[in-house]
Write a structure and sequence with these properties.
The structure holds three protein chains of three kinds.
Chain A: H1 2-19, H2 35-42, E1 46-51, H3 56-74, E2 77-82, H4 87-96, E3 106-109, H5 111-119, E4 123-124, H6 142-145, E5 146-147, E6 150-151, E7 156-163, E8 165-169, H7 180-189, H8 200-212, H9 226-243, H10 258-266, E9 272-275, H11 280-286, E10 294-297, E11 303-313, H12 319-329, H13 332-339, H14 359-364, H15 375-379, E12 382-384, H16 388-403
Parallel strand pairs in A: 1-2, 1-3, 11-12
Antiparallel strand pairs in A: 3-11, 4-11, 5-6, 7-11, 8-9, 8-10
Helix pairs in contact in A: 2-12, 5-16, 8-9
Chain B: H1 3-28, E1 30-32, E2 42-43, H2 46-53, H3 55-88, H4 100-103, H5 106-119, H6 126-146, H7 151-162, H8 167-196, H9 199-203, H10 212-221, H11 225-245, H12 253-258
Antiparallel strand pairs in B: 1-2
Chain C: H1 6-35, H2 50-57, H3 59-90, H4 97-102, H5 111-122, H6 127-134, H7 154-178, H8 181-190, H9 195-210, H10 212-223, H11 227-232, H12 240-249, H13 256-286
Classes of the chains: A alpha/beta, B mainly alpha, C mainly alpha.
């Protein structure tokens, strides 16, 4: 009798556990529906958006502006799922396990992540032309139309544009170095006061130097070329070897990500940090994290500029709601709010001239950045992102040469 | 050693133990605390007020942590108590099986079994995290409760049954009252294991099951130490409360086995 | 009538074996499978031995293993030594006043919070560095000894030390009571031993022998630690759990077979250790 009761309890527990997974949604390709049909199908659904949550300002924008907005307008519950470089591994795990429905709907991606997800066939698409706001996207901008030299092919929707900037404290560094040679001299002259992280931002910094140390700004453009990569990598590694003993901790260790680098900068342990978000310095100073005299700038030799995107997971259970959320994130209101320096400071992907009144005027009178150059000033120093294989190879080679004994 | 010196050493040790907690408290109330200042240059309550403003996200995380902890605690304690009784009649070798989950780091467990959880559709779900946390809590409960089942208590049970008690009465009227203290400690400690868990929540929960431990990690990772300090203090509240009630609630299972 | 039927007993034993042993066995099987490319995505037609060949040919695995064992051994030795010294120095004071409760506080701290505490206190611009600046020992953060993000793992050791020493101190205090150590020590001195000899020949061996299971379990916990090494450790070398997680779940999917090979190796190592311990226990039980 007891054994029966026990078996029953175990079955109940298993049922409870399985029930927590929720029932799989019906299989409808939202691309077969009109936009009104998509909005209707999206109502009452929950969207899980996987994104890097390493910036409190971005998290606040998503949780306090976007999430309530999509709830109110479309009755969609937006859940933010912390994820970073592990999105391909997460999705590969699901696919190899034969999971019919992913636990993610939308992923915030670009570059090598997009590349890997296409390789895994883990993205739904093409879908972007079905979004009403896609007509407002500035597809003529090559930085938006191509992601790390790859055609997006409608598999990811542009969300924002950024450029890598160095951030320093004007009180501690009155004359910041403006090119790789001057930067090397500064590092050697100020031992222990400079470093970079080994994640996305740090790799972006290294790629900027790879191009900046060459005479040709297009040296890494186009498909991956082993010979050109090796030549550029060796120039970079020569530069790194020259400065390594003067880096923070004598270059024996590096911050694992940009958030850790920001902490070192905020604590006064180093005099520079960097960011792929050219508007970040303003909101970090406003929140009291960075010193009041902090400001951002780009090297004269150029820094990488790219766009970031939103993709829909191939086995996403809520594709219709995912499309509605992405469309909302591309809306003029959401893009305007995102571009405000006090909120996020992220560049828009929209063609301002094609926006309906009054948005062009509103964007034109958006409060400017106080501590970073304007986007117009930065444009001449914007370098195109090389192909994703460059980043994958660079990360591996850097670890092998500078982190392994 | 002289008594005076002993007193100084004792107080010094106590202050050293309290120092990290005090540092967290000060940090959670700081706006600007630049090097080399020993005290924040500018104080603010924003970290705690922000929690008020973000209560819509923090409250679910705290409730999720609490519900998970209670469920894990109840299931592990109940199952552990009943299992330990069965093991009491068997050789000690059986107990060594309970040491296995302690030997395996939760991260290793999560990366190895992640695919199995995905195949069952349990990754990214509350139920998956619950299932993942149970083996650790259950093994712990078995070790802790094993100490209850002395020969005397086993024979007491047999005696009660021979005198006509039904099995339900045996548990309710005999073992229940006797084991109440131990079961309370077991429930608290297994719940605390779940409350503290980060690795399983992170990798089996895949970011979907947001608990307080994940919030502490995420705010720390986002670079805002002040916010992380406030979240950490909230996380420390239940065990520190237990400390005020009865410090022995925090005394780990294995240590009880060797030093009752 | 028995309180439980044989069927119920077998059912609980089955649940127990499955939960404790079965889950670990399944973890090992899956790790082995993934280490040779089986069950991976995209699916492979043939087995992939690259993970195992990388494991045996590169320094990565052996370095991480040696590094993890070294930090664990150092932490344990220091924690035990410190706990014993404090026990000798403080004696009955451990059970009096606010110290008696304060010593339980570190038991209430989860690893992720401990990592935050470690960073706040030990980083180059942390509290200890500021105190050092205030008393004139250092003038800038870089002059303070690198205790976090340090390849030597000093921050990891110090923070783990702060967490485990109070536990061992409390344990030794209670063991001392349970074993009636003061009585044994006074008997030893009465028989001619010095106080030092009494501690080294009687007290210390007894305490360590009685606490060996706890020391072993905490040693394993330190070996497999994740949050502290992740948040306070250097990018290289890294401890076992961090290295494994990076390889398996990082964005370079080509590293996955190697990551799973490391996972399987570590699980085999643990199972071997567990089997040896179980056999020893079994032999001790049958010894007359």
């Amino acid at each position: 009798m007891k054994a029966l009761a026990l078996r029953g309890a175990l079955s109940g527990l298993l049922a409870l556990l399985m029930a927590c997974g929720g029932a799989p949604p019906p299989d409808v390709d939202p691309r077969t529906l009109s936009w009104a049909g998509i909005e209707h199908a999206a109502r009452g659904q929950q969207v899980h958006l996987a994104m890097w949550t390493g910036d409190a300002a971005i998290n606040r924008y998503m949780r306090e502006f976007i999430a309530p907005r999509v709830r109110e307008r479309y009755d969609i519950r937006l859940e933010i799922v912390p994820a970073a470089g592990d999105i391909p591994a997460l999705l590969a795990n699901e696919l190899s396990a034969g999971q019919p429905r992913s636990h993610l709907d939308v992923v915030w991606i670009n570059g090598e992540t997009f590349y890997k997800l296409r390789q895994l066939d883990a993205l739904f698409g093409p879908f972007t032309r079905h979004l009403p706001n896609d007509a407002l996207v500035d597809w003529h901008n090559p930085r938006i139309a191509r992601d790390f030299q790859q055609e997006v092919d409608g598999y990811e929707a542009p969300w924002g544009t950024v450029q890598l900037l160095l951030i320093t404290d004007g009180a501690r560094v009155p004359q910041p170095p403006r090119d790789p040679a001057a930067l090397a001299a500064w590092i050697i002259g100020h031992p222990g006061r400079f470093t970079f992280d080994t994640a996305f931002t740090g790799l972006g910094f290294m790629k900027s130097l790879m191009i900046g140390l060459s005479d040709d700004r297009a040296v890494l453009d186009g498909p991956f070329d082993e010979a050109r990569y090796v030549a550029a990598r060796d120039r970079l590694f020569d530069w790194l070897r020259a400065v390594q003993p003067a880096l923070w901790r004598a270059g024996e260790t590096f911050p694992r990500d940009v958030a850790q680098l920001h902490q070192l900068f905020a604590n006064g342990e180093v005099d520079f940090t960097m960011s792929m978000n050219d508007g970040e310095v303003d909101n970090k100073v406003a929140s009291g994290l960075f010193p009041a005299a902090a400001h951002a700038y780009a090297l004269d030799s150029g820094t990488l500029a790219n766009s970031h995107y939103l993709g829909i997971v191939a086995r996403a259970p809520h594709k219709a709601a995912a499309m509605v959320v992405i469309n909302e994130l591309q809306s003029a209101e959401a893009q305007y709010e995102k571009q405000r320096p006090a909120v996020w400071g992220d560049g828009t992907v929209l063609d301002i001239a094609r926006l309906p009144v009054p948005w062009p005027a509103r964007f034109a009178t958006l409060p400017g950045r106080e501590r970073a150059p304007s986007r117009e000033d930065l444009a001449s120093r914007a370098l195109a992102e090389p192909s994703p294989q460059v980043m994958i190879r660079l990360e591996r080679d850097f670890r092998a040469r500078f982190l392994a004994d | 050693m002289g008594e005076r010196l002993r007193a100084i050493l004792g107080h010094g040790l106590g202050l050293l133990v309290m120092l990290p907690f005090a540092a967290l408290l000060v940090l959670s109330l700081a706006r600007s605390w630049p090097y080399p200042q020993l005290w924040p240059a500018v104080w603010q309550f924003d970290q705690w007020l922000l929690f008020g403003a973000q209560w819509s996200t923090l409250a679910p995380a705290a409730l999720r942590s609490l519900s998970l902890a209670l469920l894990v605690g109840l299931l592990a304690t109940g199952a552990g108590f009943l299992t330990s009784r069965v093991l009491a009649r068997r050789s000690r070798g059986w107990l060594t099986l309970a040491l296995l989950p302690f030997a395996v780091p939760p991260v290793v467990y999560a990366v190895s079994l992640g695919q199995a959880y995905a195949a069952l559709g349990l990754n990214g779900h509350y139920g998956g995290v619950l299932l993942a946390q149970l083996p650790f809590a259950y093994a712990y409960a078995v070790l802790l409760c094993r100490g209850y089942w002395t020969r005397t208590r086993l024979e007491l049970g047999e005696l009660a049954l021979s005198l006509g008690a039904r099995p339900a009465q045996l548990w309710w009227r005999v073992h229940g009252p006797l084991a109440r203290g131990l079961l309370g400690v077991c429930l608290f400690q297994t719940a605390l294991m779940s409350w503290f868990d980060f690795a399983l929540v992170r990798f089996i929960g895949a970011g979907h099951v947001e608990t307080l431990s994940l919030r502490v990690f995420d705010t720390l990772n986002a670079g805002d130490l002040r916010q992380a300090a406030a979240a950490a203090l909230i996380m420390l509240a239940p065990p520190c409360l237990a400390l005020l009630i009865n410090p022995r609630l925090l005394w780990p299972a294995l240590t009880r086995a060797v030093a009752p | 009538m028995r309180a439980s039927s044989p069927t119920e007993g077998r059912l609980w034993l089955g649940i127990y074996t499955l939960a404790c042993g079965g889950s670990v066995a399944l973890a090992l099987l899956l790790a082995l499978a993934r280490s040779v490319g089986a069950l991976s995505w995209p699916p492979r037609a043939t087995f992939d031995g690259s993970g195992w060949s990388t494991l045996f040919s590169s320094d990565g695995w052996w370095l991480t293993l040696a590094y993890s064992f070294a930090l664990t051994a150092i932490t344990l030795c220091l924690a035990l030594a410190l706990a014993l010294l404090l026990l000798i120095a403080l004696g009955p004071r451990l059970r009096r006043g606010w110290l008696a409760r304060a010593l339980f506080l570190p038991l209430a701290v989860p690893p992720v919070v401990a990592a935050l505490m470690g960073f706040v206190l030990l980083s180059d611009s942390g509290l200890l560095s500021r105190v050092s600046h205030a008393i004139g020992w250092t003038h800038m953060p870089a002059q303070f000894p690198s205790l976090v993000f340090d390849p030597a793992g000093r921050g990891i050791v110090l923070t783990h030390l702060a967490m485990t020493t109070p536990l061992f101190l409390l344990l030794f205090d209670r063991l001392s009571d349970h074993l009636r150590l003061p009585l044994l020590m006074s008997q030893a001195t009465a028989l001619g031993a010095t106080r030092r000899q009494a501690w080294l020949r009687v007290g210390l061996p007894l305490l360590l022998h009685q606490a060996r299971a706890v020391i072993g379990v905490y040693g394993l916990a330190l070996l497999g630690a994740y949050e502290l090494p992740l948040l306070l450790g250097a990018s290289h070398p890294s401890m076992l759990s961090v290295t494994i997680q990076r390889a398996v779940a990082g964005y370079d999917l080509a590293q996955q077979p190697f990551g799973y090979a490391m996972t399987a190796s570590y699980l085999l190592l643990l199972l071997t250790g567990w089997a040896w311990y179980s056999l020893r226990l079994g032999r001790a039980a049958v010894r007359p």
